[in-house]
Sequence to fold (318 residues):
Amino acid sequence: MVSRKIVRVIALLGLALTLWRAQTPATHAQDEVTWLLTQINNLRASLGLPPYSLNAQLSTAATLHSQYMVNTCDISHTEANGSTPTSRARAQGYTGSWISENIYMGQLARAEDAWNFWINSPIHYQGLTHNVINEVGIGVAYGECGQGYTLLFGHRDDVSAPAAPPAPPAANNDGSGSSAPPPTQAPYVPPPPTRTPTPTVPTITPSYTWTPTAIVSPSPTHTTTPTATATNSPTPLVLPTVAASDTLPPTAPTVIAQLPSASSTASPSSGNTPPPTPTVPPTPSPAAQSAPSWLPPVLFLGAALLTAVGGWLLWRAR
Fold:
């Protein structure tokens, strides 16, 4: 029983939703158009600006663009065929200028959602409070992608603004009477642009230090080559002599040896040939004559034999 009741409730809810969606495009859309126009003109009145006139040509172009958005899920001011707000307004025969557009779409969007978005966006707020624009077209559409809302603004010189909404009665001095109602929406004041400081990154410039290096270039060394000087007179060399009474006979003359000069060596053909130099044999010392030549080998051999015998005895003792 409980499951059957749940099924019935779900079916009734689905039928009610279907009927509501079927009636919405014809009735609810018009209510939202009227509500949006009232919100726009109340905002402008709070700022001392004249109200906008609702233009049929701009409204047709706005409705077609809202239908495009809910059918294609494309939230853009330019459609796939390349049309723009100005070209869509011209296609409906609108001849005014200062054409601009506000759009909004969402799966469960309402007119209140679109209005809150526009008044809190500086660029969209300018279209609602412009001091030159005097006409607006409002388009509301529903489709598979949700609800779409479009405001299409324009200006024509031959358009007179509609009468402003009547001012509320002022309160009497005695306190009787009704006071002015507060505006439906507080005017939006665009915040000043926020300046974001740009951090300054220090630039490190590498510095090059040049260290001078002394390079010593060796200078050529000139070697002076002795030049043989030709001398005609020979250089005498006096050798020591011994007494005549010890080794030589009394008649032995003193021997004087002469070395050949450079001139005589360079030119052997000259007639001045020096006599040969005598060779004096060295006299051996008495100590060298007394030491026999066989003694050092014998001493070395004996020392080696004693060392071997001593090592063998130590090894046997272990």
Summary: Helices lie at 2-46, 56-72, 85-91, 111-119, 122-128, 262-266, 286-290, 295-317. The radius of gyration is 66 Å. The longest helix spans residues 2-46. Residues 66 and 191 are 30 Å apart (CA to CA).
